[in-house]
Automatic annotation (TrEMBL):
Species of provenance: Rhodanobacter humi
Residue ranges constituting the Beta-hexosaminidase bacterial type N-terminal domain according to the UniProt record: 29-161
Pfam families tied to this protein: CHB_HEX_C_1, Glyco_hydro_20, Glyco_hydro_20b
Phylogenetic placement of the source organism: Bacteria, Pseudomonadati, Pseudomonadota, Gammaproteobacteria, Lysobacterales
Signal peptide boundaries: 1-21
Family statement: Belongs to the glycosyl hydrolase 20 family.
Listed EC numbers: 3.2.1.52
Protein name as catalogued: beta-N-acetylhexosaminidase
Domain spans labelled GH29D-like beta-sandwich: 558-607
Domain of life: Bacteria
Keywords: Glycosidase, Hydrolase, Signal
Length: 792
């Protein structure tokens, strides 16, 4: 806080009769947490329907637009209708004022004073006033807020400004694209968490999504791929290709919409890798002269741009159009995952490397990137790129901002980037890639491994260990990545992003000293309610009750309930009714008679009754311990599996399979096999789309023509307990239920099990939905959340 500001705050506190600055009162539930918050004990200010909002000071048209949007937002979400006026209205309950000389920190800073004169927001620029309006919206939606009622805003002073200038979300529109309307909704929501950069990833192996004058095939050919696997559900037919791109007019509209919300759209053109779609459009851009298809796999494609003069001319043309469309100072030119196999195999590329006096292909990539970056800097723009070449020991153009996604080894690569003089954006895949799944719950949505929990996102290291103060000053921000291989639609995007975006927002905006996981959790419920009012389909994963069922003494089941964060109170019912804030609070594991059939429902609540997680249900009986779904099995490699969506069945939710890509092998340690006579498996075949993972595929010899599932005891080469031929499943499009007797006596107790599918996963990998044992003739096994009847 500047000297003037401190004096102001002290004087104000004295007027209000406040002895000391205390942490923000719970009544202020702000997210991200402001830089400075001084609650006061004086009476709260009431804002009711019809309250007047006055607009004063400089930059009047922009300020008026900000206030109009604030008034709309409040009416839409809060049901309060305010009345904006430009007249010097003495009755104004809320005043917005832009004063270029105000004692407010930076252009994005603002001050809010709440006292017996009403609420006054002061900023030096429209941007600051916008952030002030967002905070005011949050002040008017405190914990427990209800639509339509008057708002009470606790008195005090908030003096706020962001920690970092770059508070970003990367949106991958290459793998799956989003409509203009969806992107605009996302930008709107981003701005309400005070994020200010949308890194729009527009070109990929799987689709080139931006019209470029003079190169019509980029979108005619490069924006369409065959509708393989689940893409056919999006297009309606495997014969209907998956196509989509953005016109110049659409891009301009998105850029304009974002600018109104103080979000900069930074375009992302990935070079020289992730360019297979461009080469599919213009094979001369590639090394081999061949035309590849637009890729339908995920992973790292071997198709690289040829780093010659003709390609550089093309790239200049692309970037010229990009610079025409996007006013952003920053332009991302990618540089990640450039697999050099085609360059290495090409005599022409080898010759170019030698002619340039370069020692290896990483240096050649560095040279190519330097040429591209030079074109941007010559036009006054700043190149942005990934940290991969630093991982490979090469350098990047000095002017380039480095997005560091390799967060392993104590942020070693980010530190190296800082020490080479780069500005750095921290985007470690380990915690800020929001396409990674959020939990190991059976109802977790599809996502990449490994897990990235809300807490991991919140605890992201934003200043690399070992950075000096000067080096730390070159960390310009944080960025989350929404890569969309497993995100085919906007519902999936929202579930992956929220509420982890709230953690990102706080990393990017709030001072390091405000980092407080428990405080963040306390402030989250009001934010979740705001998300709800905005229509955001957020994940309640961090609070969802998980059922841990084990064998109790005698013929009982012991059920422990917990949630990932340990936040809130889990309440449950055993009569099938929906839990309410008045239901029994969970305090210790439950003991249930196994012979009874108990329907256990549990949900998580705040002390004031606010529901943190929707009810989860499990039916518990003698069969419960005899079945597991794939989320409850380990992979044989002991690596965390991918959560892959299956085909949408005619009825019920889409299945999600936990699987180790390339290895159709699961472990169930200490399975309770005493007395079991029969096994059932629910299996489905998923389309192989895993590109470069093909080389690690584990192929097991088949016995029958269609292959089979096998269950082995003790180890994967141990005694065969059952073999289930896949013939009935081979032609099915969804799940198939296979059954077999247990051929050998498994012994009396628990055995380690290895469950494998034979054959080659690259022909279509078998996924295991569920394994269930039964005793005698009884069909058993009830997946969590539902009892399935009939044919699926
Ligand atoms: C990346 O995740 N390939 C930047």
């Amino acid at each position: 806080m500047g000297k003037g500001l401190a004096a102001f705050a002290a004087a104000w506190l004295a007027t209000m009769g406040i002895a000391t600055a205390t942490p923000a009162a719970p009544a202020w539930s702000l997210l991200p947490q402001p830089a400075h918050a001084y609650p006061a004990a004086s009476p709260a200010v009431e804002i009711a329907d019809g309250a007047v909002v006055a607009v004063h000071g400089a930059d009047r048209p922009q300020l008026q637009a900000i206030v109009d949007r604030f008034v709309h937002l409040l009416a839409d979400t809060r049901g309060l209708r305010l009345h904006a006026t430009t007249a010097a209205d003495a009755r104004a309950a809320i005043t917005f004022n832009i004063d270029p000389h105000a004692d407010v920190a930076g252009g994005a800073g603002y001050r809010i004073v709440i006292d017996d004169q009403g609420i006054r927001i002061t900023a030096r620029t429209p941007r600051g006033a916008f952030y002030g309006s967002v905070t005011l919206w949050q002040l008017l939606t405190p914990p427990g807020w209800t639509r339509g009622s008057a708002a009470e805003v606790a008195a005090g002073v908030i003096d706020d400004h962001p920690r970092f200038a770059w508070r970003a979300l990367l949106l991958d529109s290459g793998r799956h694209y989003q409509s203009v309307a969806e992107i605009e909704r996302l930008i709107d929501w981003m701005s309400l968490d005070k994020l200010d950069v949308l890194l729009w990833h527009l070109t990929e192996d799987q689709g080139w999504r931006l019209d470029i004058p003079g190169y019509p095939a980029l979108t005619k050919t490069g924006a369409c791929r065959n509708a393989v696997g689940l893409d056919a559900e999006l297009t309606g037919s495997p014969d209907q290709p998956y196509c989509g791109h953005y016109t110049a007019a659409e891009v301009r509209e998105i850029v304009r919409y974002a600018a109104e919300r103080y979000v900069t759209v930074v375009p992302g053109i990935d070079l020289p890798g992730h360019a297979q779609a461009a080469i599919a459009a213009y094979p001369w851009l590639g090394v081999t002269g061949q035309r590849p298809p637009v890729w339908t796999d995920w992973g790292v494609s071997p198709w690289l741009l040829k780093p010659d003069a003709k390609t550089l001319h093309f790239v200049d043309d692309v970037l010229d159009e990009v610079m025409r469309l996007f006013p952003s100072k920053y332009v991302s030119i990618g540089g990640d995952e450039a697999d050099k196999q085609q360059w290495n195999a090409s005599p022409a590329v080898q010759a170019q490397m030698h002619q340039l006096g370069l020692a290896n292909m990483d240096q050649l990539q560095g040279w190519f990137t330097g040429q591209v970056a030079g074109h941007l800097t010559a036009h006054g723009r700043t190149p942005v790129g990934w940290d991969d070449e630093l991982v490979a020991g090469a350098t990047l153009p000095a002017a380039e901002v480095v997005m560091s996604w390799h967060g392993n080894d104590g942020e070693r690569v980010a530190l190296a980037a800082l020490r080479q003089g780069h500005d750095v954006v921290m985007t470690p895949q380990e915690s800020l890639y929001f396409d990674h799944y959020q939990s190991s719950l059976p109802d977790e949505w599809p996502g990449q491994p490994p897990m990235a929990t809300l807490r991991q996102a919140y605890d992201t290291v934003v200043i690399p260990h070992g950075a000096s103060a000067a080096e730390a000053g070159h960390v310009i921000g944080v960025q989350a990545g929404l890569w969309t291989e497993l995100m085919p639609d906007f519902a999936r995007d929202q579930h992956a992003l929220y509420p982890r975006v709230a953690a990102l927002a706080e990393l990017g905006w709030s001072p390091a000293a405000a980092h407080d996981w428990h405080g963040f959790l306390q402030r989250l419920p009001a934010e979740l309610e705001r998300y709800r009012a905005l229509g955001i389909g957020y994940a309640d994963t961090a609070f969802a009750p998980a059922f841990d069922v084990t064998a109790g003494a005698g013929d009982t089941l012991r059920v422990a309930l917990a949630n990932q964060t340990g936040f809130g109170t889990i309440r449950y019912t055993t009569d099938g009714s929906a839990p309410t804030p008045a239901s029994t609070a969970y305090v210790r594991p439950l003991t249930l008679a196994a012979r009874d059939r108990t329907t256990l429902r549990a949900a998580t609540f705040m002390p004031d009754g606010y529901p943190l997680a929707a009810p989860r249900m499990q039916v518990l009986d003698a069969a419960t311990l005899l079945g597991r779904d794939s989320s409850q099995l380990a992979s044989c490699s002991h690596q965390p599996g991918m959560r892959l969506g299956g085909r949408q069945p005619a009825r019920g939710p889409r299945p999600v399979y936990t699987m180790d890509v390339g290895d159709m092998c699961w472990l169930w340690p200490q399975a309770p096999l005493a007395g079991v006579t029969h096994v059932n498996l629910s299996v489905a075949r998923v389309t192989w789309r895993f590109g470069d993972e093909a080389k690690d595929a584990v192929v097991r010899p088949r016995v029958g023509a269609a292959g089979e599932f096998e269950i082995h005891a003790d180890s994967c080469t141990g005694p065969l307990l059952a073999r289930l031929p896949l013939t009935p499943a081979a032609q099915a499009s969804g799940q198939t239920r296979l059954g077999a007797p247990i051929a050998t006596t498994p012994g009396n107790g628990a055995r380690d099990l290895c469950i494998v599918a034979t054959g080659d996963p690259r022909d279509g990998q078998w996924a295991l939905a569920r394994i269930t044992f039964s005793k005698g003739n009884t069909e058993t096994g009830v997946p969590q959340g539902e009892r399935r009847t009939g044919k699926r």
